[in-house]
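Database export, one record per block. Field names are fixed; values are copied verbatim from the stored entry.
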Amino acid sequence: MTPWKPLDEDSGPRPVAASLDSITRKLGAPKAKSLAAVFDRWVDVVGDGVAGHATPRALRNGVLVVAVDDPAWATELRFMAPTIIERCAAIAGPDAVTRIDVRVAR
């Protein structure tokens, strides 16, 4: 039986965040830092009033899935999409969010 050895013997320990970013990129998700920025600062992106009715649920391949509690809010979020994308770019990077997919939560 061959003893275990690392793939790259020259590299030392890596931060967990570096490994997570590699894994999430393969799954189509953004960097952990970008994801955290969008979800943690959602109120800054949409404002208190909208945040009470709309919640980010997923971010994959640049598509931010947002759940709303009423069809009227879905219409509002679709109208706000260009502004939301612009604000997300300011806090998470230019390609973190490229499209908004709004869904009414049941």
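Remark 1: The radius of gyration is 18 Å.
Remark 2: The mean pLDDT is 85.
End of record.
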